[in-house]
UniProtKB/TrEMBL annotation:
Keyword Calcium: yes
EF-hand domain ranges (all copies): 1-24, 25-60, 61-96
SUPFAM superfamilies in the cross-refs: EF-hand
Protein keywords: Calcium, Metal-binding, Repeat
Name of the protein in question: EF-hand domain-containing protein
Domain of life: Eukaryota
CDD domains (alphabetical): EFh
UniProt-listed Pfam families: EF-hand_7
GO molecular function, one term: calcium ion binding
Amino acid sequence: MDNNGNKKVSKEEFVQGLMETGLEMSTKEAEETFGRFDTDKSGNISLDELIKQIRPPMSESRRDIVKKVFKKFDKTGDGVITIDDIRSVYSVNSHPLYMSGEETAEKVMNRFLANFEVDGTADGRVTLEEFMNFYSGISVSIDNDCYFDLMMRQAYKM
């Protein structure tokens, strides 16, 4: 549907794309559907917005382990993970870029936190929602709840 190649789908591209599939839907219905995908109300649907809307929700057991990991990181208990929170639970000593001297410990930790930030907006503060969204994306590629739980526990020494 991304006819102009800008890595986003405009309302016009979306409506046209739906019509080209042969889906019987009025223009109004197509525009309403577009609105459900355009969660940031930018007038375009990004790949992240599309994926977040079509992926299945995580099971309660997966959500629980993700919350436990978040709480482990959130040392201050304020509902936000910052570099200060992760200093005592995330060691950069074995990180290749730190070991080679290419990056400082602070830079490596910022890069780690940036993995969880939404839409490339890295403010050094990760909310539970951002953390949950990150692991929701990983969750869809893991079929078994027990394996997901094991992966999280091993990765974060729980």
